[in-house]
Amino acid sequence: MTASEAGVCRLGEFHPFQAGPRRFLYLVPAGAIFQLDDAAALIIDLLSGGDRPLYQLASDLVERGMPRGEAREVIGELLSAGVLINGQQPSVAAETPPAVFPLQTLVLNLTNQCNLSCQYCYEFGADKVATPEGKPKFMDFETGKASVDFLLKESAGRRTVHVTFFGGETLMNFPLLKQVVAYASEQAKAQDRRIDFSLTTNATLLTPAIIEFLSENRIGVTVSMDGPKEMHDRLRVFANGRGSYDIIEPKVRALVQNHRTRPITARVTLTSGVTEVVKIFRHLKQDLGFHEVGFAPVTTSPNQLYAINNHGMDRVLEQFHFLAEEYLAYALRGEMHGFTNVSDTLAELHQGVNKSHPCGAGLGLMGIGPSGDIAPCHRFVDSDTHALGHISKGIDRDKQADFLRRGHIGSKYDCHTCWARPLCAGGCHHEAFVRYGDTGHPNLHYCDWIRDWTGTCLRIYGAISASNPDFLERFAERRAS
Ligand code: SF4
Ligand code: SF4
């Protein structure tokens, strides 16, 4: 018996799941998916009854008819994959990104003004974090140019970078958007690099000329829209209380029909009373023709009238499951379904992400407000408390380090035993601030929901990878393009 065979063997940290008859493990410290064959499944079952020395595990397998050489080989493979542990558990925290991380995406809030008064808006509602008093309402070209220069400088080493235009209502500053697209394209070309663009809009100000410009310049568009008229108009209203559905519906149809260079997506905010996910999905996908439709529950403190209660969230999750099953059936036929919430999670599972932070905010992604303030992301722009510098002076590295230290999974002790942490990493910094007053606090109010949804997506991923792996390859290529 060798010294290592004398060591005690135990199960690594994983979340087991099943897709049809097949058994899988989600290996938490690696964020990887592992399909069990019969031998591996037998070992897992044996060790589920308790730890045992390696030599004994090998003997148990031999007793069950496995040749000794094969038993050693399988155990060795499972040890190197981290399914089994013989010694120290790997660290709970994903690797920390380098202190100076190259920027990939810059979100430009072209204005903090909006022509709608959606009651749940995080920019204007009761939960707002922005302090725009005394600052410009519209970004000017000098700030836009400086932002592009900042992005190209801070993204050194990346060939492709992204600019996302945001608001307020983005199109209220369309003249600047056009100027920035021209300037950024010229600068990127001079550096032999690629810059691509996207925007989020409420669609009220779309015109044929704007649609033509967006299509010609391959600008991706996300429309904030909450479903059919009776749902959309509950909260997405003008200042006089009138719903915006009738204004945007023909504009959205024209956008979907005439913007042919990039897929058009819809983003739905779910609120109390707007939780009919399947109905909303059908309307936006089938009636209006959006390419993808994504849903997010409203970000708010729980005492707001439009906050979704636990019962409402259960109802949402039930319908998410329904659409997820539909997604799976489509994928097995090699077809795209269009439910963004599944697509996004599948993409992360396929890449094997293991997040140190919940998202790119403050790392590969930053937001710039109309005043030129640098923020961790678009949701924090114009907030003095959260500013990470100013475009004229660059990033305040101390503030950035503090933001990233608090948001790191290693600082979120409640998450250390959670199997969903490679994907969740504690959840949105902005939501954490709104709920708990600290961007680094884990979003513990939705853990059950996150784990349930992650489990569903794992099962779908497992089923697709076993029955139609080509779909995942094509899906990954399409997402990367
Ligand atoms: S916030 Fe909850 S679900 Fe997310 S990683 Fe932490 S414990 Fe897990
Ligand atoms: S902090 Fe929240 S809103 Fe900002 S980029 Fe991250 S997930 Fe999105």
Uncertain segments are none
Q: Round the mean pLDDT to the nearest integer and report it.
A: 92
Number of strands: 16
Q: Look at the helices and sheets and give the structural class.
A: alpha/beta
User: What is the spatial order of strands in the main beta sheet?
Assistant: 12-11-10-9-8-7-13-14
Radius of gyration over C-alpha positions, nearest whole angstrom: 24 Å
Largest sheet: 8 strands, mixed
What's the total helix number? 17
Principal-axis shape equals globular
Estimated helix fraction: 40-55%
Distance between the termini: 53 Å
Question: What share of the residues does DSSP label as strand, in percent?
Answer: 5-15%
Bound molecules: iron/sulfur cluster
Model description:
With 481 residues, the chain is of the alpha/beta class. 42% of the residues lie in helices and 15% in strands. The protein has 17 helices and 16 strands. An eight-stranded mixed sheet has the order 12-11-10-9-8-7-13-14, with helices on one face. It has a three-stranded antiparallel sheet with strand order 5-1-6. Helix 5 links the parallel strand 7 and strand 8. Helix 5 runs parallel beside helix 6 (174-190) and helix 12 (340-351) packs across helix 16. The mean pLDDT is 92. Bound molecules: iron/sulfur cluster (SF4) (2 copies).
